[in-house]
Amino acid sequence: MKTLKDKIVQEGKVLSDIVLKVDSFLNHQIDPQLMKEIGEEFAARFKNAGITKILTIESSGIAPAVMTGLILDVPVVFARKRKSVTLSDDLYTASVYSYTKKETNDIAVSIDYIDSDDTVLIIDDFLANGQALLGLLNIVKQAGASTAGAGIVIEKGFQPGGDLIRENGTRVESLAIVSSLKHGKVDFLEEAVE
Ligand code: G4P
Ligand code: NA
Ligand code: NA
What we know:
The protein is of the alpha/beta class and about 190 residues long. It has a single domain, classed as Rossmann fold, CATH 3.40.50. It contains 6 helices and 10 strands. The strands form 2 sheets. Strands 5-6-4-3-7-8-9-10 form an 8-stranded mixed beta sheet, sandwiched between helices. Helix 3 (about 30-45) packs across helix 4 (about 60-70). The chain binds guanosine-5',3'-tetraphosphate and sodium ion (2 copies). GO terms for molecular function: xanthine phosphoribosyltransferase activity.
C-alpha cells in the first residue's frame, strides 16, 4: 500500500536494526485518514471471505480494526491484555510471550463476543514474532469459529512471525512488509501486485 509505505518513510524512526517507531500515525498519535484507507484496503482484500467479525488486540490494533469493521459492516472485538487472567468459563484466554518486551501477557476475550458460526478476520498493527497473532488464532479456535485470515498493517519480514503463521495455513495480508531496517533505512519487500 503506497500511501502507508510513503508515510513510514516520511515519519517512521528506525530505532535499531529491528525496531521501527511509528508513533506519529499508528502507535501514539493516530492518522484517521490513513486508518480509513487501511480499513478500505483490508476490506477490499477480504471482501469475499464472508467475514462476520473482526478481532484485534488492545491498544494499537483497535484503530485499523475499527476502520475495517466500519467498511465491512461487522462488529470489532479487541482482546484485553492482562498480567495474568484467572481461568474462567466466561473468557477465552491465551498466553502471549513478547520477545520484544521479554514478558508474558494473558489475553482474554469474553465468550459473549465470538460465536462458533463466526468467520473472523484478525487485524493487528505489527507482525514481528507472531506470538500475539498465534494467541488470537488460538482464541478463535477455542470459540469454534473459523478464521478467514489476518490483516497486518506493518509486517517485519525479517522476523519469523509471517512465515510461521503462513506455514500454519493462515492467510496473512500485510499492507507493508519491511525487509530490512539496517543502516537506519527502511527497505520494503516489493509485492507482485499492488
Ligand atoms: P509478536 O506478537 O509478533 O510476537 O510481537 P512482539 O511480541 O515482538 O511485539 C510486542 C509489541 O511490540 C506489540 O505491541 C507489537 O505490536 C510491538 N512491536 C513489535 N515490533 C515493533 C516495531 O518494530 N515497532 C513498533 N512500533 N512496535 C513493534 P503491544 O505491546 O501489543 O502494544 P500496543 O501498541 O498494541 O499497545
Ligand atoms: Na503495537
Ligand atoms: Na499490536
